[in-house]
């Protein structure tokens, strides 16, 4: 009945909730007379019904006051940031409590007799339209709780949590507890007839969240109400280019290959046809001057008329004269040269007393001057380093999902890890871990001594599903009214912030450390939001970290004990993966010891090869004289001394070494060797690798470059001296190794002929390769190889899989695999606002906050917008917001209090000390007065969240807001959220790029729309320092290779008579080698990163050896045609390239394939093997074919070079094979 009430005035206190419940009174509505009550009614209920003075209502002054207290309590803290949402919800209870038409939609079902004539309401029906309930829900469902990174509706919906709906929300709020009486919400669209009564469902107009509650007010923010702003749009990544469903590059290179095949076919067919005219064929295709070999040797440099060619010949002659003089000097005074060499090496190697090795991953892979490193240092200096993390991931062996029927007859499915006995076993393991006691500095170290305790209550932050039971076996076994641990788990995964689980159990979901345990952190292996179906659970312990390593000694001591314990722990029901903060560094250190045997074997193999290769065994009776074991050992020793000298020199300079330097550089120097002047090029290329900003790569390049340079200097001095001494030994017929022994005088040296390999090249391989059909076929194959490699260049993975950095038997590998398989949330990301920002100014606040009145382009709004497209931006949730929670805390009278002298009054003393509300909020703008903003901020940050005021900021924000000058000035602050799941290097790199793009846009908005033109926001996450390099990896690769190949061109130009044509051919061949090597990287799953980049740069230098000798021999040949000159060059130098360059490297590289280090096998064995095989194939197959077709014409200057074409005599063979006496 319109104008009639069915309940009013207070009847008594409900024993379950402690709240007052009304009396059942069927009386007419009447107006309020108290001015304060009238103002409060108008403030709370003006949008629900007529609240003008004198208008009748169904509530008393006391009821209205209680309503105001309840609405201004937790509901206000959660929802008031969105005015229309809060107002619509207030209308629900205003109508129920005070509406003059109460009897038209409220039906009292049950009462309890309190005293004579007083019946307290215990149950009612509340009739409401579906349209209102849905409108109410739609306008509130996106309101955020900044401290928890979740929506407020999740908390307000009780156990329904993320599965909340309009009906479920209202049904939960109407449940007897939290409500003082049972409210049964009934949803209808028209009149409801019950017996003789007709009810009209409440249908107060719903105010959309995109509109202000009152004229001149503010609508809800974009974060809380997406319809308040335009939907955010983000640039879409460029679609992969394809043609007919095939990658575009494949199609393009296929057409290029077809065109090349047609051209090759036409050219060689024309050649075959022209060969029918002997008088024209060679001249037409080769255009060489047909100068006889007999006449060639009588020409000199003075006969050359080309100035460039003449200068080149002069340079060549000077270099030859210099090295001839140097060689003569070293051979003439070998003892003096060796003495000087030994002294210099000893002085250099003494620097090893200052030798240090770094295995810190940050120091290894992040440049100190990089943006990410600077931002990391800024974060650490203002907020402290990110926590040290100790984590265990557990699955159940042979477990299967199971079904559970709740007391409400609902059937739920739980994953196997929720088996009760299994949870007890996990809790036992957790207790064993947390009770570990280590020793450090003469004292006992427990976890609570080093852990992060956000409430400063001595309780460690442990993210574990057992912490929903406060890590207590009794709570896990507790049952009441048919409810058990599964009901509690289901409630907590829906609402991890619940102080109690809204079940008869009444257990809290908060961990014993006072904070929430989010299911996406504590559980794994589930799909979507179906947390109950998890197949894995985690135990994550957060330990305080410090900038100074010495301050982390206690933590590292405990972590060491923890790792030892976990390695020895076993449970037949569990599959366990684990890691600690120190695990990666420990495994890197262990890796350095794992391949010592492999390294020793490789040296023995190289030593044996060098010894055999250097020897010239004529007959068995001269074996001990012809042996070169001593010389070979000396060559290997020179390599080792060059490495120790390099280490010593850089140790003097204070440059720390890395494990890769110790393990790889001896291989590199031994494999590369110094067989000719082109070693200068290789040393230069490795120094080019020092341009890399990745410290491990930069230092490796410096050490390797210096080692090769020293090795070269020792080779051309000390090794020549050793060779001279060895020659004297042979001439004196003394035995190798045992020099005191002497053989009988042998017969005169006979011409024992050419080696079998030389004969194979001269008589069989070279003539066969120069056949026209063979050249055409092989050229086609090489062109196809090149095209196929170019087609896949853009598909090479960029990055370094962290699993490759670990030994193959490392426990960390199983942990990485478990992370990828079960991980359900990514790393935290902090958006850091640098110090100096004026947070007291309203305009500046609006560019940061995310509540009502804040800019739609504010910092928090932009992060929230990014979180709305997580698959693209890699931002999983809106960010936590200390400033919005500070607003809510200051505005709520239950939170902020002062003593009578206006000094701050802590929440726990507010009642006993008769404190009053702070009154520091401007009611018009709902902002803290500028004069009070900084003054009360330390108080907000010192309060722990409690039931009466869950907005206390100590647990969530104390470490995220920096205060200066005795808390009088705000410094740097951060706003935290999470990345989505990141599994591959591409994921990590893209996440970094998106975070930087978002931060850059925020910074632009702050500077454009605010008063602080220096405002700066940057993102920080622990992995950024490792993945920043990959943002520019292709640019770095192209620039480094371009510089290196340009250097090759310049050096070869100087050393080849300034022959541009020959230099271009060498550069072309090397470029093909590099491109095909990168193609191999794609097919053999080798990613592009700093390590592989240095290998590519080094490959350029090594490739010079495969190309330069044959190209130079081609230029020196005086045969009549290009084909004959190419055949001649291949005959003379092919065997040397194969045996002296290819096989030398091959022997040292093959051993790497047996290394335990995965980085060795992938980035060194695979890539070095590719360098040798691809380089040899191009040098011994493609290059001679290319020279036979497009080689340079015979230069007159080269006709003055002594002929080395007829290697049938022993003297010529000796000249040619001189390089084989050096260490290859």
UniProtKB/TrEMBL annotation:
Protein's UniProt keywords contain Protease: no
Subcellular location: Membrane
UniProt organism field: Limulus polyphemus
Organism ancestry: Eukaryota, Metazoa, Ecdysozoa, Arthropoda, Chelicerata
The protein, known as: Niemann-Pick C1 protein-like
Domain of life per record: Eukaryota
Family: Belongs to the patched family.
Keywords on record: Disulfide bond, Glycoprotein, Lipid transport, Membrane, Signal, Transmembrane, Transmembrane helix, Transport
Pfam families (UniProt xref): NPC1_MLD, NPC1_N, Sterol-sensing
């Amino acid at each position: 009945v319109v104008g009639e009430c069915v309940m009013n005035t207070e009847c008594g206190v409900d024993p379950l909730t402690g709240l007052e419940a009304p009396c059942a009174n069927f009386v007419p509505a009447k107006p309020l007379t108290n001015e304060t009550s009238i103002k409060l009614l108008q403030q709370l209920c003006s949008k629900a019904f007529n609240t003008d003075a004198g208008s009748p209502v169904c509530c008393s002054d006391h009821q209205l006051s209680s309503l105001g207290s309840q609405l201004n309590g937790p509901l206000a803290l959660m929802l008031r940031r969105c005015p229309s949402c809060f107002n619509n919800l207030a209308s629900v209870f205003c109508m129920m409590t005070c509406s003059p038409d109460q009897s038209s939609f409220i039906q009292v079902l049950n009462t309890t007799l309190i005293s004579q004539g007083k019946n307290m309401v215990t149950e009612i029906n509340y009739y409401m339209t579906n349209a209102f309930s849905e409108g109410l829900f739609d306008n509130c469902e996106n309101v955020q709780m900044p401290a928890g990174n979740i929506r407020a509706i999740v908390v307000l919906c009780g156990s329904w949590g993320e599965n909340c709906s309009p009906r479920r929300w209202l049904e939960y709020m109407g449940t007897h507890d939290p409500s003082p009486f049972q409210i049964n919400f009934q949803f209808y669209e028209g009149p409801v007839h019950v017996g003789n009564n007709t009810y009209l469902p409440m249908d107060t107009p719903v105010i959309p969240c995109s509109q202000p509650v009152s004229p001149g007010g503010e609508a809800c923010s974009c974060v809380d109400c997406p319809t308040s702003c335009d939907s955010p749009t983000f640039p879409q990544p460029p679609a992969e280019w394809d043609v007919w469903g095939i990658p575009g590059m494949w199609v393009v290179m296929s057409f290029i290959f077809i065109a090349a095949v047609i051209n090759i076919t036409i050219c060689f067919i024309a050649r075959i046809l022209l060969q029918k005219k002997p008088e024209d064929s060679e001249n037409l295709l080769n255009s060489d001057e047909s100068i006889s070999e007999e006449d060639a040797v009588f020409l000199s440099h003075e006969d050359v008329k080309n100035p460039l060619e003449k200068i080149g010949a002069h340079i060549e002659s000077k270099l030859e004269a210099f090295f001839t003089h140097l060689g003569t000097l070293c051979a003439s005074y070998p003892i003096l040269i060796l003495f000087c060499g030994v002294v210099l090496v000893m002085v250099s190697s003494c620097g090893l007393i200052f030798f240090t090795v770094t295995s810190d991953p940050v120091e290894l892979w992040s440049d100190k001057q990089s943006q990410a490193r600077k931002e990391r240092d800024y974060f650490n200096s203002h907020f402290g380093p990110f926590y040290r993390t100790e984590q265990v991931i557990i699955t159940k062996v042979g477990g299967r999902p199971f079904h559970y029927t709740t007391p409400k007859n609902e059937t739920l499915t739980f994953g196997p890890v929720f088996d009760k006995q299994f949870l007890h076993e996990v809790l036992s393991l957790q207790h064993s871990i947390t009770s570990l006691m280590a020793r450090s500095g003469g004292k006992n170290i427990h976890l609570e001594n080093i852990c992060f305790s956000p409430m400063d209550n001595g309780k460690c932050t442990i993210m574990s599903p057992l912490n929903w039971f406060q890590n207590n076996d009794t709570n896990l076994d507790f049952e009441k009214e048919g409810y058990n641990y599964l009901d509690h788990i289901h409630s907590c995964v829906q609402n991890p912030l619940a102080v109690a689980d809204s079940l008869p159990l009444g257990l809290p979901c908060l961990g014993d450390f006072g904070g929430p345990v989010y299911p996406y952190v504590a559980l794994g292996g589930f799909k979507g939001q179906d947390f109950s179906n998890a197949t894995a659970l985690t135990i994550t312990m957060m330990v305080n970290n410090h900038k100074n390593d010495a301050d982390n000694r206690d933590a590292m001591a405990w972590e060491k004990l923890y790792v030892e314990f976990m390695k020895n722990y076993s449970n037949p029901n569990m599959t366990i993966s684990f890691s600690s903060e120190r695990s990666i560094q420990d495994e890197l250190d262990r890796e350095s010891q794992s391949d010592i045997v492999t390294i020793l074997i490789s040296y023995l193999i190289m030593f044996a090869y060098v010894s055999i290769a250097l020897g010239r065994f004529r007959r068995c009776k001269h074996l001990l004289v012809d042996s070169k074991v001593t010389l070979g050992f000396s060559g290997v020793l020179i390599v080792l001394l060059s490495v120790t000298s390099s280490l010593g020199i850089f140790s003097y300079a204070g440059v720390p070494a890395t494990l890769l330097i110790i393990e790889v550089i001896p291989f590199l120097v031994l494999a590369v060797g110094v067989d000719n002047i082109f070693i200068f090029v290789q040393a230069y290329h490795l120094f080019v690798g020092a341009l890399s900003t990745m410290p491990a790569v930069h230092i490796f390049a410096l050490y390797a470059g210096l080692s090769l340079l020293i090795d070269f200097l020792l080779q051309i001095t000390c090794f020549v001296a050793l060779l001279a001494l060895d020659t004297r030994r042979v001439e004196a017929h003394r035995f190798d190794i045992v020099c005191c022994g002497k053989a009988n005088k042998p017969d005169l040296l006979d011409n024992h002929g050419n080696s079998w390999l030389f004969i194979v090249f001269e008589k069989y391989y070279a003539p066969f390769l120069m056949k026209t059909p063979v050249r055409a076929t092989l050229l086609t194959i090489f062109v196809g190889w090149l095209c196929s490699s170019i087609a896949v260049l853009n598909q090479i993975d960029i990055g370094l899989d962290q699993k490759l950095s670990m030994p193959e038997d490392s426990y960390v590998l199983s942990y990485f695999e478990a992370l990828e398989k079960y991980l359900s949330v990514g790393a935290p990301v902090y958006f850091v606002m640098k110090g100096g920002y004026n947070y007291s100014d309203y305009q500046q606040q609006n560019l940061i906050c995310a509540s009502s009145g804040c800019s739609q382009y504010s910092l928090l709004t932009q992060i929230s917008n990014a979180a709305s497209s997580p698959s693209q931006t890699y931002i999983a949730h809106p960010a936590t917001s200390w400033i919005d929670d500070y607003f809510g805390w200051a505005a709520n009278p239950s939170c902020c209090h002062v003593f009578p002298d206006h000094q701050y009054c802590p929440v726990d003393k507010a009642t006993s000390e008769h404190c009053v509300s702070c009154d520091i909020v401007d009611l018009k703008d709902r902002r803290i007065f500028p004069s009070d903003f900084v003054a009360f901020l330390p108080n907000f940050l010192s309060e722990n969240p409690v039931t009466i005021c869950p907005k206390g900021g100590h647990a969530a924000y104390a470490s995220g807001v920096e205060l200066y000058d005795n808390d009088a000035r705000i410094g740097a602050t951060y706003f935290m959220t999470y990345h989505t799941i990141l599994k591959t290097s591409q994921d990590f790199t893209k996440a970094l790029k998106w975070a930087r793009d978002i931060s850059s846009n925020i910074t632009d908005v702050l500077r454009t729309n605010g008063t602080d033109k220096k405002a700066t926001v940057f993102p920080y996450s622990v992995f950024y320092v490792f993945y920043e390099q990959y943002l520019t990896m292709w640019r770095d690769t192209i620039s480094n290779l371009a510089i290196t190949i340009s250097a090759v061109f310049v050096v070869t130009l100087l050393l080849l008579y300034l022959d541009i044509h020959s230099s271009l051919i060498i550069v072309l061949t090397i470029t093909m080698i590099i491109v095909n090597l990168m193609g191999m990287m794609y097919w053999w799953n080798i990613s592009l990163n700093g390590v592989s980049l240095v290998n590519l740069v080094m490959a350029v230098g090594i490739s010079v050896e495969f190309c330069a000798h044959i190209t130079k021999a081609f230029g020196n040949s005086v045969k009549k045609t290009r084909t004959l000159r190419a055949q001649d060059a291949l005959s003379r130098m092919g065997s040397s390239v194969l045996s002296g360059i290819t096989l030398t490297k091959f022997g040292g590289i093959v051993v790497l394939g047996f290394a335990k280090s995965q980085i060795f096998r992938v980035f060194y064995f695979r890539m070095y093997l590719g360098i040798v095989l691809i380089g040899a194939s191009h040098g011994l197959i493609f290059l001679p074919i290319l020279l036979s077709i497009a080689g340079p014409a015979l230069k007159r200057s080269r006709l003055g070079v002594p002929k080395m074409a007829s290697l049938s005599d022993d003297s010529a063979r000796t000249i040619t094979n001189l390089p084989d006496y050096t260490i290859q």
